[in-house]
Amino acid sequence: MGSTRVRIAIDAMGGDHAPGEIVAGALRAREELGVDVLLVGDPQQIEAALPPKTNLGQVEIVTAQEAIAMDEEPLNAVRRKRKASINVAMDLVKQQKADAVFSAGHSGAAMASALLRLGRLPGIDRPAIGTVFPTIVAGKPVLVLDVGANVDCRPKFLEQFAVMGSAYSQYVLGTTEPKVGLLNIGEEDSKGNDAAVRAHQLLRENSQINFIGNAEGRDVLSGRFDVIVCDGFVGNVLLKFAEAVGEVILQILREELPQGLHGQIGSALLKPNLKRIKQRMDHAEHGGALLLGVAGVCFIGHGSSQAPSIFNAIRMAKEAVDNQVIQRIQSQYILERESG
């Protein structure tokens, strides 16, 4: 690709605040992370979102003639709008002109485009969206997958999610021997429906992962687990509930701490602590979710993402590229087939 810097293709037209916030976060990532960003979309809108006196020679804009709206049916839109920004961004990865892609637009369209253009990794039946949650243990996040790609999951899919999640947790999040759990309604092996019981057996028998048993809802943020697998229906509900709880707690702190003179003084004294609380709880600090199982690094952000979220998503994408997470997942399955 002619450069040793990681190159990230950014869907500049995707998201509620595109292209302004997308461009702002991408430019910050370029300066602070040392990555090259390829802004994909309408050149006129992108240039209008650039800060005054921006050196256009240092900004790479890739033209895309269309964008996919949030209310469009994803698969049909991806097939019909071949020059949509998400498709053009995916093509850059497929053509090895970029190392990763990020979009805060239609998540279904991003997944459909990734599957059609990049394809699945060998041995993977379904890709999964994995997102990082904070836990009560500082500096110890938990990766939950799937959080929306697959409403229904066979036990074999959950086993594959566990292997992919373990690789990501180990090589990107820096976890030694990630502890894997299956989200369930009880700790006992026999708990849950038939699919959960069969998934538990597959996970327990898989020597590639460190499966330690079922995880109940209260265990997700406990710090006991490094990776938790579930179907996309449950995972998406869990994700949005956790985000809402975090926002509620932060709002309560903002409202209650400044009450009266003592509260204002206390708020000033606690400002560094409050900043750290926000960093641990605010989903914007984690940026986005990785689509695991496709043949390329693909991050999906919230539709409401603003510049800080965009920056953090690009940071996570860079870490995934630097740590060769796709190649490591592939090697896991090659080893599994050879040993089988």
TrEMBL record:
A GO term, aspect molecular function: phosphate:acyl-[acyl carrier protein] acyltransferase activity
Stretch forming the signal peptide: none
The superkingdom listed in its UniProt entry is Bacteria
Record keywords, A-Z: Acyltransferase, Cytoplasm, Lipid biosynthesis, Lipid metabolism, Phospholipid biosynthesis, Phospholipid metabolism, Transferase
Enzyme class name: transferase
Q: Where found?
A: Cytoplasm
Q: Tell me the Pfam families matching this sequence.
A: FA_synthesis
Pathway given in the UniProt record: Lipid metabolism; phospholipid metabolism
Q: Which reaction does it catalyse?
A: a fatty acyl-[ACP] + phosphate = an acyl phosphate + holo-[ACP]
Q: What is its main location?
A: cytoplasm
* EC identifiers of the protein: 2.3.1.274
> NCBIfam families from the xrefs?
plsX
Q: Which family does it belong to?
A: Belongs to the PlsX family.
Describe its partners and assembly state. Homodimer. Probably interacts with PlsY.
Instruction: State its role.
Output: Catalyzes the reversible formation of acyl-phosphate (acyl-PO(4)) from acyl-[acyl-carrier-protein] (acyl-ACP). This enzyme utilizes acyl-ACP as fatty acyl donor, but not acyl-CoA.
**What is the recorded name of this protein?**
Phosphate acyltransferase
The species this protein was found in: Nostoc favosum CHAB5714
